[in-house]
Amino acid sequence: MLSGTVDDAIGDKTKPSIPPEWITYEDELELIWGMNWGAQSEIGRLEEVIVSRPGPELSPPNEEMKWHAIRHPIDWKKAAEQHDALIKVLKDEGITVHYDERPASALMKGPYGVQLSRNPGLRDPGVVVNGGAIIGRMAMAFRRGEEVFWAKKISQLGCPILYTVRGTGIFEGGNVVWLDPFHVCIGIGARTNIEGVNQITPILRASKVEEIRSVSIPYALDNYDWPAGGWPHLDCVFGYVAPNLAVIYPAAVGYDFVQYLRLKKVRMIEALPDEARDAACNTLALEPGKIIMNTAGPHLRRQLEREKIDVITVEMSEFALHGGGPHCQVGCLIRQAGPSLES
Does residue 22 fall inside a structural domain? Predict the structure, then answer.
């Protein structure tokens, strides 16, 4: 809704035109950019997303699996079938789904001459805040360049780009978990560094974010075998599912983060170690209290259902080998603000 009328913007045509300074960028977002772009929530009603169907690039050579942070060989054809099942749920829920189709030649040989294994999905190359997109900078050589495909696709859709992480900054969208439009948690580790967070902070502030909570998460040195190895992203071990309710694997975050959530009156359901390993915490909310989660989390699912959460399960076993689940696969473009944090 424009704060001024169209006639106000045009002004008196018998005089030189002047900028309509009382009309904001936010006022004009839909008028000029076509949509009210923004997904500054984890639990508001999901409306529009971007995804990419996996192919052979998901399965690098066996001798490179550890380098690609993969625990076991992946059946990419099975992964594609599992991805199709996930997308069917989204479409059945009335969510608009855009596909980011990428040339196979570019995926099989990225800018550093290695296979882009996309482990996994369209969550990581960037994040859409109120008003447009922040383009990330991927951490690992086997993912560098994905952000270019992502940026081109969302530009094609009409989403404005607000900032691109550069220099020595590293930022991946899987490290972003919203508590509400004004409170965001960002994982700091191998896939996002302080410099990356510092660069995007002014954009978040301009998008009305009041509090940015950094969360340290561990990663591997030489040993990537469970239970060692750490985690690539915060959303692997922390999922926000309903107002003031989250799932978490507390062994993967500092105790200060647990204390922070308690102070915010966020109730936490703890995932069992083996279920956390298989991406049970990597939940994707469709609306407040209605989520998609991996089938490999029956204990966590029962606890969620006791909290009256509507749980839709989808088999994501091949993606869990990469460390991800439904949340990793889906890049959110438009999501309603949803309930605010009650603290």
Answer: no
